[in-house]
Design brief:
By secondary structure, the protein is an all-alpha fold. The protein is built from 17 helices and no strands. It is globular.
Length: 328
């Protein structure tokens, strides 16, 4: 999968529109929907996903992929659990009948998050991902197999098994670096940072968020880049960088809502928690001013702020760790 520029996406759209075979045109809209969503074109992605379902004939082998992509968009952008369940229930029999291991694996993963993790059933999610790994192995796609490892580690994180999660994310990062897979490296490094936050390892988490943001930025992967900027304030505020923490938190929330989807109740609780920490360090007036300043940030500005804050926090943490201790 290769990200297309805006002009490339437009050319692909014209090619799909010109196609006279509905059995090809429907899956074409689905491919466009996936690319548009990854590029932050949420509303266009929803439209193309709906168009794909309208035009892909019932029972057609390509319909399972169209349903899976529509489900991914519905879950990520709206957390629409009921719609996702209906899409999965139509898609799974089609994927199994067609012997499409790749689509079936994606559907099982979507089911794990939308129908199990969302209600706290990490055991059910883990059981589904145990089915995903052999499907990925059989499909022969190494990158997809690494993605299955990532999700197994992420389910461990959701279940509170921090050591298993950290070991899993480290394994994925090592494999992604070897394969020059920036997308997977960013995902795994970011989640590894989240696991280290739970261990209160602020500097370790910051280093992982830097890996996540830098790899995503260099690959023009704004989707995973936004995750890193959303999560890094948890480390920055504990490393005495309240201004950047507040600005990056508000920027990431705004960027996500404009391009990808809605904030969940858990997201809003997370924002409130960071805001309270910022206020405890710098006061209400500064916290409000920093939040307002985030409105003026563009992606390049936010990345510059991220780099400067990470460098400052790392320097100060290193100096504190190596400073001679007074004799007691």
């Amino acid at each position: 999968e290769v990200a297309l520029s805006g002009s490339g996406l437009l050319q692909l759209q014209h090619a799909v529109q010109a196609c006279r075979d509905p059995a090809l045109r429907g899956p074409g809209w689905s491919l466009l929907a996936a690319m548009a969503f990854d590029g932050g074109m949420r509303d266009q992605a929803r439209q193309w996903a709906a168009q794909s379902l309208d035009e892909t004939p019932p029972g057609h082998p390509g319909r399972a992929r169209s349903l899976q992509i529509a489900g991914h968009i519905a879950w990520t952008s709206q957390r629409d659990r009921t719609r996702v369940q209906h899409l999965i229930e139509e898609a799974e029999p089609l994927a199994r009948a067609a012997g499409d291991d790749a689509v079936l694996a994606s559907l099982l993963g979507l089911r794990a998050y939308a129908l199990h993790v969302s209600v706290g059933d990490t055991a059910g999610a883990r059981a589904l991902f145990e089915q995903v790994e052999p499907l990925r192995q059989r499909a022969g796609n190494r990158h997809a197999l690494h993605n299955a490892w990532y999700h197994q580690a992420n389910i461990a994180l959701q279940a509170g098994d921090l050591q298993r999660a950290v070991d899993g994310f480290e394994r994925v990062c090592r494999a992604a670096r070897a394969d020059d897979d920036a997308f997977q490296l960013s995902m795994a490094a970011d989640a590894w940072g989240n696991a280290l936050i739970q261990r209160r390892d602020w500097t370790g988490a910051l280093a992982r968020y830097v890996d996540a943001a830098e790899s995503a930025w260099q690959a023009s992967d704004l989707y995973n880049w936004c995750y890193a900027l959303w999560n890094v304030p948890s480390a920055l505020v504990r490393l005495h960088q309240p201004g950047p923490a507040q600005r990056l938190m508000v920027f990431a929330a705004t960027f996500w809502q404009r391009r990808y989807g809605e904030l969940t109740a858990a997201d809003r609780r997370h924002m409130a928690r960071i805001d309270r920490l910022v206020r405890s360090l710098a006061g209400r007036a500064s916290a409000q001013a920093w939040a307002a300043a985030a409105a003026d940030l563009g992606p390049a500005d936010a990345m510059r702020e991220f780099r400067q804050a990470a460098a400052q926090a790392t320097t100060e943490a290193t100096a504190q760790a190596t400073a001679p201790r007074k004799a007691g």
